[in-house]
Write a structure and sequence with these properties.
The chain is of the alpha/beta class. It folds into 2 domains: 43-157 and 278-304, Response regulator (Rossmann fold); 161-275 and 309-341, Response regulator (Rossmann fold). It has 14 helices and 14 strands. The chain has helices spanning 2-24, 31-39, 55-70, 90-102, 113-122, 161-171, 187-202, 218-226, 238-242, 244-253, 263-267, 278-293, 315-320, 327-330, and strands spanning 44-50, 79-85, 107-111, 128-131, 152-155, 177-183, 206-212, 231-234, 258-260, 272-275, 303-304, 310-314, 334-337, 340-341. Helix 7 (187-202) links the parallel strand 6 and strand 7. Helix 3 (55-70) packs across helix 12, helix 4 (90-102) crosses helix 5 and helix 8 runs parallel beside helix 10 (244-253). The radius of gyration is 30 Å and the shape is globular.
């Protein structure tokens, strides 16, 4: 009996010690787990949809990524980019937009009008930042320039065409007929052609157009234009931008100056332009993206533009056309020779 009491006493004592030990046990994570938990960061998923590769659009994309990096959004650390290029195909752009929507990306960057439109068709919930879109209102992406009213905001590459026509008058004072090659499937291009027709009348000029549906149509349409015009005007059209070497080579052979709508056209052989710096446009788009990532509603934001334009002149093209560059233009211009900026 005494032995049983002792046994029970020992059991009770052991149970009490066990309870005490359980109560004193540290249930927090180990130091290693604490470090791992503290260093885990939510990675923002960004889909980038680009209609086609050419210098202006590539520069806008690079500016966007660099701009985000400058704000602390570093690829491989707290942000991940998925770049998809539609290679000029609208159907592919639609597939890309639908894929980004299905993946529930945190943000979409749409570069150029066709990809902006297809991304917007795919989602009305994911914030879409646009860039290199000339007229987002005409493209049906936003309600107004001042307040988007949709899940879309970003930047436009619009520039006053009056500056381009003034350059035509400077280099070809007697020019009467201006040729424009454009893709009829791009809303952006239709808008520019209509605006150019209005502006041309103020300068005593007439617009002659030729349409293309793809790069394969450029050669024949170009032959038609070059036999009928005094100067060629290359608008912001993705098919045109991708065909600049062919366009400028044939124009020079026919002694027809090409006035571009963007600096990349001049690097591609056009004579001159006054336009936006697409890298800087990308940087501005990145600043707007940061606002969205910090909680701002795209619907309440305006569409941004660049105030400062860049005058660019191709020295090689001027020489081939036997044209003299006015000194007042030369001293204020970015000069291109052999595809390289001379006065950086």
């Amino acid at each position: 009996m005494v032995g049983m009491k002792r046994t029970l006493s020992v059991i009770v004592s052991l149970l009490l010690i066990g309870v005490l030990l359980v109560g004193c046990t540290d249930t927090s994570t180990s130091p290693a787990e604490d470090v791992q938990e503290a260093t885990e960061t939510t990675v923002i998923q960004v889909g980038i949809t680009q209609i086609i590769e050419h210098p202006a659009l590539d520069a806008a994309r690079e500016g966007f990524i660099d701009g985000l990096a400058a704000e602390g959004f570093i690829e491989g650390e707290n942000i991940a980019f998925e770049l998809q290029n539609a290679q000029g195909e609208i159907a592919t752009a639609q597939t890309i937009g639908e894929s980004f929507s299905a993946q529930k990306k945190d943000l979409i960057l749409a570069i150029a009008t066709p990809t902006a439109q297809t991304a917007f068709q795919a989602t009305k919930d994911i914030p879409i930042l646009i860039t290199a879109v000339t007229d987002p209102v005409a493209a049906g992406l936003v309600d107004s320039w001042e307040r988007s009213g949709t899940n879309v905001t970003g930047t436009s590459d619009a520039t006053p065409p009056e500056k381009h026509f003034q350059l035509m008058k400077t280099f070809v004072p007697n020019a009467k007929r201006v040729g424009i090659l454009y893709n009829t499937s791009e809303t952006n291009s239709e808008v520019q052609v209509n605006t150019a027709k209005e502006v041309a009348s103020n300068f005593g000029m007439e617009i002659v157009t030729a349409s293309v549906n793809s790069i394969n149509d450029v050669n024949q349409s170009l032959d038609y234009l070059l036999s009928r015009v005094d100067v060629l005007y290359t608008i912001k059209d993705n098919v045109v931008a991708s065909s600049m070497p062919l366009i400028t080579t044939k124009a020079i052979e026919n002694n027809i100056p090409v006035i571009g709508a963007e600096p990349a056209h001049v690097k591609g052989g056009a004579l001159a332009t006054e336009g936006v710096d697409y890298y800087r446009l990308g940087l501005q788009t990145a600043s707007m993206a940061v606002e969205v990532l910090n909680g701002k509603n795209p619907a309440d934001m305006s569409i941004g533009t660049l105030e400062d334009l860049e005058l660019s002149i191709n020295l090689d093209t001027a020489e081939k056309l036997n044209l003299t560059i006015p000194e007042d233009l030369k001293k204020n211009a970015t000069l291109i020779k052999d595809g390289v900026v001379q006065n950086d």
